[in-house]
Amino acid sequence: MSLYEDPITDGLSYIWRNLIVTQTMVCNDVEARTTSDLYDALNPFRKEDQEVVLWADQLCINESDVQERSQQVRIMGYVYKYSQICLAFLGREIEGDALTMEFMNDIGKRWGYDQHEATYYPKDPASVDTLDKEVR
């Protein structure tokens, strides 16, 4: 997929704990092998009734081709900067995560994200600038 022909819809950033490829999934009608970390990261964003387009490094970069990998790593900043939305997956929930998730949900609500409606876009674009200033 060319970034010029098909601009990125959403970028996915996720935790890399396990580098062993153990999962199989279908992506663009092609079977793909991936780590459990990426598999777990993709599952919350799947939709039964519609196609979801995400950029995920493990699926979009040929890691065995050093030249391609180097070229793709150089544009990763562009990928995340120009994605409509950058999704982050911090891993499966573990004991003690409740307070952190409550904090993240509060931030998400300020950005217009409702975890139950899966609405990711800011309801008020001005709130993005306000939150950005507060975080700095």
Q: Could you explain how this protein is built, in words?
A:
The chain is α/β, with parallel strands linked by helices. Helix content is 40%, strand content 18%. It contains five helices and five strands. A three-stranded parallel β-sheet has the order 4-1-5, sandwiched between helices. The protein starts with 9 loop residues before the first strand and ends with a helix. Mean pLDDT is 75; it is low at 118-136.
Report a brief summary of the structure.
It contains five helices and five strands. The protein has helices spanning 36-42, 57-60, 66-82, 97-111, 125-135; strands at residues 10-14, 21-27, 30-35, 54-55, 85-89. Strand 2 and strand 3 form a beta hairpin.
Secondary structure layout plus pairing:
Layout: E1 10-14, E2 21-27, E3 30-35, H1 36-42, E4 54-55, H2 57-60, H3 66-82, E5 85-89, H4 97-111, H5 125-135
Parallel strand pairs: 1-4, 1-5
Antiparallel strand pairs: 2-3
Order of helices and strands: EEEHEHHEHH
Number of helices: 5
Q: Kindly report the average pLDDT value.
A: 75
> What composes the largest sheet?
3 strands, parallel
Report the structural category: alpha/beta
Please tally the β strands and state the result. 5
Determine the fraction of residues in helical runs and give it as a percent range: 25-40%
Which residue ranges are poorly predicted, with pLDDT under 50 across at least 5 consecutive positions? 118-136
Strands ordered across the widest β-sheet: 4-1-5
- Distance from N terminus to C terminus (CA atoms, Å) equals 35 Å
